[in-house]
Write a structure and sequence with these properties.
By secondary structure, the protein is mostly helical. Helix content is 64%, strand content 0%. The radius of gyration is 22 Å and the shape is globular. The two termini are 41 Å apart.
Length: 336
Amino acid sequence: MSEAAQNVSGPERAAIFMMTLGEESAANVLKHMDPKEVQKVGTAMASLSNVPNSTVEAVLQEFAQTIEEQSGVGVGSDEYIRNMLINALGEDKASSVIDRILLGRNSKGLDSLKWMDPRAVADVVKNEHPQIIAIVLSYLEPDHAAEVLSHLQERTQADVLMRIATLDGVPPSALQELNDVLEQQFSGSGSAQTSGVGGVKTAANILNFMGGQAEQAITEAITEQDADLAQSIQDQMFVFENLLDIDDRGMQAILREVQSDVLIIALKGADEAMKEKIFSNMSARAAEMMRDDLEAKGPVKLKEVEDAQKEILTVARRLADAGEISLGGGSDEEYV
């Protein structure tokens, strides 16, 4: 990375790059991001001002694009950000994230919980019945739900996760009622969405994103109350070590989606079998460079290693959900 880009954070680099694309192209990029990513990049875009051309060029070079001389990018434009988000997300969904990014107002409605900070969601639901909390967390993305769960009281966490695991869909009327409650709480409006939520798989996905100690404590608490349910949840969980079970084709697909700096940090906490699994699915030159970078990398906090491994697992699950890989590896899997 060039010196000009070293002092710019990842979200800021992404924001600068997006600002160079124009509203329509940037909107098309945002369509492929999840709510959490959109909010990070959007917040960075809103905070940028007076970015030197040298930094813009360094960021563009980092994205491996050939560029001509560029004038200053019009960063920090509220109207630009507003139009881009509306194009990417639609007016209803964009309104909530625009409020958070540009105006700092609270999101509104059940669907808009996806755009709220995890601690804020926890504050909204902490005094609700555990069954209500279970429905809300089932409605969120697993990593978001896990963060919300981590901000709830410990005695509530296992109860909520058990309810998620045994939740077999939610009637439309119940979702509408919950949405109405949230509308009143936020003094806003929203629309109910009727979809099946909950189940053992949802509980397992959320637990996958919990920290090691929290995951163990919740699992033990569930086991004490319902050992069979706890086993069912564990059977559905997918952890970093399970990458060893993925076939070479699947591993190569994952590695194409993971940035090298993330992979290096993740491997700091991996055993030799996992390292060899990954190196064997790279070119000889790439594997040699990765080994050198890993050896040169200094000590890394355990939290950073866990976060990097979770990021790789998120890629693996996304590819599996799209039918591009099989998480079980399995040479018996049939591809068409």
